[in-house]
Amino acid sequence: MAVNQVYLRLYDYNMSFAMENMKIFLSNPTEDKILLKPAFKLFGLMPKLDLNATEIHNFSRVLIETEFEIPDWFNSHYKSHDLNKS
Question: Residue ranges per domain, the chain?
Fold first, then answer.
């Protein structure tokens, strides 16, 4: 849910643009493309997934297009990590 919200918020809720940027990251995760910096600090850079282009597209689509229920605590958590657009 956090990935969904961060990508959508940073890309002005443009699902197509958010999904394209997620696909770029998933195709080749690098530090300069990281949007979830607190997760990176905790877990490090995610490994490159062994997925083909169709699988990356489908994975990105699920993460972006799913309407997750946002828990009450999420907005304050989001703001506490300074994830707002620069």
Answer: 2-80
